[in-house]
Amino acid sequence: MPAEWGWLAPWTGHPDAAIASVTQVEALGFTGISAAEEAAIRQFFQKCPAYPLDDDVIEHAVKVRQQRRMKLGDAIIAATALEYGLPLVTRNVDDFKHLAGLTVINPFDSAAAPQP
Questions:
Q1: Contact 45, 24 (CB under 8 A)
Q2: Which of 15, 19, 30, 59 could form a disulfide linkage to 23, CB 3.0–4.6 angstroms apart?
Q3: Beta bridge partners of 89
Q4: What is the pLDDT of residues 8-66, one digit of tens each?
Q5: Secondary structure of 3-57 as H, E, C letters
Q6: Residue 9 contacts residue 44 (beta carbons within 8 Å)
Q7: Residue 24: exposed, middle, or buried by beta-carbon count in 10 A (0-12, 13-18, 19+)?
Q8: Domain boundaries, position 24
Q9: 100, 68 contact by CB (below 8 A)
Q10: For the chain, what is the domain count?
């Protein structure tokens, strides 16, 4: 795993680690991502269940976007976490902190890393 993705290591294989299906597009869709970064991300995704973009998540995403303007991908990811009662792990805490009921964890905060 590339050093810049070292923060991901404690979450890999964690029993509570999961992703919104759209997270795959968000994380792998950046231009300039290296082959090593892509491999590390894909390895993480292979170990996590992916929650689907179903009707309930879509309705929740609509409500999220009605509350405050936000990117579609972010709204879907937040709605997935809210729908399933999961915390959202992201470096972009400011994009999500306004959502009531959503626990947001910054993985770059050393206190946030899951304990074995």
A1: yes
A2: 19
A3: 105
A4: 555 566 667 788 999 888 888 888 888 888 888 888 888 888 999 999 999 999 999 99
A5: HHHHHHHHHCCCCCCCEEHHHHHHHHCCCCCCHHHHHHHHHHHHCCCEECCCHHH
A6: no
A7: middle
A8: 3-112
A9: no
A10: 1
CATH number for the domain that contains residue 37: 3.40.50.1010
Local structure of residue 65 (DSSP, 8 states): H
Question: Amino acid identity, residue 46?
Answer: Q
**Prediction pTM value:** 0.80
Report how far residue 11's alpha carbon sits from residue 68's, in angstroms, rounded to the nearest whole number: 29
pLDDT of 56-111, one tens digit each?
999 999 999 999 899 999 999 999 999 999 889 888 899 998 999 999 988 877 56
